[in-house]
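Subject: complex prediction, re-run

Hi both,

The earlier run crashed halfway through, so I resubmitted it with identical inputs.
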Amino acid sequence: MNRLLNEAGLERYYQLKPQRTLPLLNYFDRRPSLEWLEQQPGLPDGHLELAVEGIQCGACVWAIEKVAARHGGARVGVNSALGRLSLRFEPGVFQPQAYISTLAELGYRVRPMDADFEDRSQGVLLRLGICAAASMNAMLLSLPFYLGLQHEDGSGFYTMLRGLSFGLTLFSVLFGGSYFLARAWRNLRQGVAHFDIPIALGMSTAFLGSTWAWMHDQGNTVYFDSVNLFLTFMLAGRFLQERALMANRRSLLRGDAFEHAQVTLLADDGPRDIPFPKVLAGDRLLLQPGSLCPAEAVMEPGQSAEFDRAAITGELRPASLKGGDSVAAGARLVSGTAARVRCAMPFSAGLLARLASASSGGEEELPVVWRWAVRWYVGLVLLAAAGGGAYWLSHDPSKAPQVFIATLVVTCPCGLGIAVPLARTLADRRLAASGLTVRQPGLLERLQGVKRVCLDKTGTLTFSHLELADPARLKALAPEAQRALMGAAGSSRHPISRSLFRELSARGVAFPEDGRAVEVPGEGVRWSDAHGEWFLGRSMDAGPLGVPGRAVLSHEGRTVAAFDLRERLLEDAAASLQALQAQGVAVQLLSGDEPARVRALAQQLGLEPGAARGGCSPDAKAAAVAEQPTLMLGDGLNDGLALGAARVSGTPSWERTVVADQADFAFASASLAWLPALFQTSRDLRGALWGNLIFAGAYNLVLLTFALRGAFSPVLCALTMPASSLVVIALTARRMRLA
Amino acid sequence: MSILFILIFIGAVLVALALALFVFSVRNEDFDHALQLSLKPLEEDQ
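This time it finished cleanly. Structure:
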């Protein structure tokens, strides 16, 4: 990442990036499929509207803009709140494919925008701004009344100010309030208890009551300024809510995991490419190096090849298969020559389709007491207002309208209407700063019942690629040996070769053009150049975590160097899991890899031996996860069912992962420090919601007593309503502030 | 007191102007790119 930023001349990124965000994962070897880009209708005209994930802060926005400038120049609009990327460019001059590839290398995932996407928050923003302006002016116009302006002055000033206040409030109610009125009416017709109903009720009765009082010269019951302020606060809360909703909806876009994936069919009338979903049982397929096997198949006679099954089982060691052997769905051909297979079942009935279609998540859930409050709030408010009005009607009829209106004004859910969306927005911001992209609503609420975290091993707890145990050995190689190693490693997709290729690329070794590579399946790669014959032999033993692979470079039969490769844990993995356990959350490893290796990893992480389960099939993982409410973290295809069975699920933002679009959230951080912080955020959100509810209850109870006694006045309302809202906002912001 | 009427009229005109600018700004999607716009002052002059 650092090298890529330096190469692109974007060193300033580090000056703009806040310290509190976590480092992004290095996606150096990701090769995102950009076939969808060709189908974008705006591509020929130079106008693209795209969705982008991974924006954490202003530095990301800056980097995205600067990268565009370095690719020939394009007008870039980045909406970081919604994750939208707007590109306007000159076709032929600016290459969007190269630009998006560079963004992917920097860790930003670009996807096509949902055709049905409509940003409803824009309309609310417009209403909010206009109501805020009306509100400030209405408050200013009300000041003379609170300072003692009386009707008897005879200057006409009183009448004008009241008229202006009424006009402004009418404008606010028609323009801003109609939003709540329409929604409340719709909810009522559908019989749904929603927060819009008490908002609409409070606003309309306060406005109509104030209008009645103004016309009947009841100055102590005119709440025009409070109606304006109430509407402004409600619209501010709704704007935050709509924004969060839009961002989540955009994140819910389904990926094109297999929609665009193709495989070569060896049909009777000649070979042709077909999409995965069209693969049928009995089809003969030609798998090219790097291709994924779409369904369970059998190798044809005379064939031999190596297949990487890491995405299915977590096992890093490729399998050498020959004619008659079974090839698992999702296995990737890593040897250098194409292989012919015959499908044993259609894609739709295969493991790959089943794993990719499993999904989790659920609707946004409010705590029980909140749902109860929303359902009964309207009834209780009306009951209190009617009761108060009736009491005063029998004791002092002149005070009855004042008490009735004051009760409805007091009980307007002002603080709650803004505090709940604010708490959620701040929680989302915290998650984004940790490198998390939320894909399903209600993630934090559902996390509150989770007491166990299950983690996959390869690609989740460890990086999916191996790293050199001793990089100095590469540096010690002669230049011609480095070039030969680059030629051999760069010609193979074997995990060990990819790791060596990555290390050599990072050191600036160029791929030699003057040599020839021949892959020997199961053994290594032969490389011939002007210096003679080189051989890169590879082996992956089943030893414990530490040295799972070894490569030996020899020249004319003489060993030149040996390289040990090891798995690399995510940063802070051990400390983060310990912190999680200290919070009372159990941790368990579930992996398809060999049990001994999983136990060794658990030991390295300081976990109990019982917390490690290796050799798990996809179904076994799902069954283990379903035992109790669990947060499951996984990346491979074999985790698809477990992610679906989990109460909450997360996955690294690998481009190759087909489960990425089904998890509740995706993380793009090279550290696991976000994991205990995620649970903390969930607890903080719960605390903020409960704190607001208790404060609002106490506040309403006190002021309700004033209202029912007939001691509530517009000036008291003008003071308490903004004060209570500001207190609630401050309490929420303090609780949900970034750590 | 008549000056107050004039001041209120001028205030109303200013409010209308501010609202028009706000609507223009929303339609221009300035609030969508707030982070991007906040970085503009850091740009070097062309």
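The two ends of chain A are 25 Å apart (CA to CA).

- K.
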